[in-house]
Amino acid sequence: MAAPDEVTAGRPPELLRLSGGVSLLRRRTSHTVALNKAVRANLDHLRPWLEWAAEAPSRARTAELTRAGAAAWEAGTDFMYLVVPDAEPGRVIGASGLHGRIGPGALEIGYWVGARYVGRGIATTAAEALTSAALALPGIVRVEIRCDQANGASAAVPRKLGYRLDRIARAAVRAPAETGRQQIWVKERPSPDQQSGPDQQPDQQTNRQTNRQTNRQTDRQTDR
Ligand SMILES: CC(C)(COP(=O)(O)OP(=O)(O)OC[C@H]1O[C@@H](n2cnc3c(N)ncnc32)[C@H](O)[C@@H]1OP(=O)(O)O)[C@@H](O)C(=O)NCCC(=O)NCCS
Asked: What is the domain count for the chain?
């Protein structure tokens, strides 16, 4: 039976191979140094859109967040990945994740890609793989990508993946380039009559359990 805080009783794959010679790997403490280096090298690139990039994190802080992420993975509430080149899996060139912070039955995808690697389709292929992984999890029927209206590069990702722009909502301005108007892009699990087999039916029991979950905006896991 799912624990009360779980978003899903399942767990996504720890390795997702993407096209273009990169993979998503479950974030682990063995990547702390490489991740910290990548974040510090990209602060100017990330700061306009990501509140956590306001200041350079210490290695200890990166390690602490990784441990919290590992615990959240085990608890089934949040699944953090790193983008790594297959030829050099010890190097980090970005991060992405499935975050259980938008209420029951749903996961939100977040992402960043190092400045030297943007424009190669990495965020799009990562989000595509994570969308499929999320919608394959028991109890998950919706995936969202949220971004500020002015963040054209981020909005291009769900648009290219066929997400539907569900709404534009007011949001707190947390990073310097944000306008406070947040686009909420949605992809839903196909309804049963659009699906090919019984294996893809939503897990009703888990849905009931996750329906009890509240929207935990105050304790946000991010891809920092
Ligand atoms: C957003 C981000 C993750 C995109 O990563 P990426 O790997 O370059 O993304 P992709 O290459 O898959 O797709 C980006 C698309 O945006 C387009 N794009 C880039 N800048 C754009 C802009 N200002 N307006 C509109 N589209 C833009 C690109 O042309 C590309 O589309 P195309 O493949 O049709 O040419 C990356 O720019 C980033 O890390 N930004 C800083 C952190 C951030 O904003 N994270 C998201 C917070 S919501």
From this structure: 1
pLDDT at 111: 98
Residue 79, domain extent:
15-210
Q: Determine the distance separating the centroid of ligand 1 and the alpha carbon of 151, expressed in angstroms.
A: 8
Q: Global pTM?
A: 0.89
Percentage of residues in the chain having pLDDT higher than 90: 82
Residue 139 belongs to domain with CATH number: 3.40.630.30
Phi first, then psi: give them for residue 171, nearest 5 degrees: -145, 155
Q: Which residues contact 196 (CB under 8 A, 6 or more apart)?
A: none
Residue carrying the six token digits 């899903």: 8
- Say if residues 121 and 113 touch (Cβ distance below 8 Å): no
145 lines ligand 1 (CB under 6 A): no
218 domain residue, yes or no: no
Q: What spacing in Å lies between the alpha carbon of 217 and ligand 1's midpoint?
A: 25
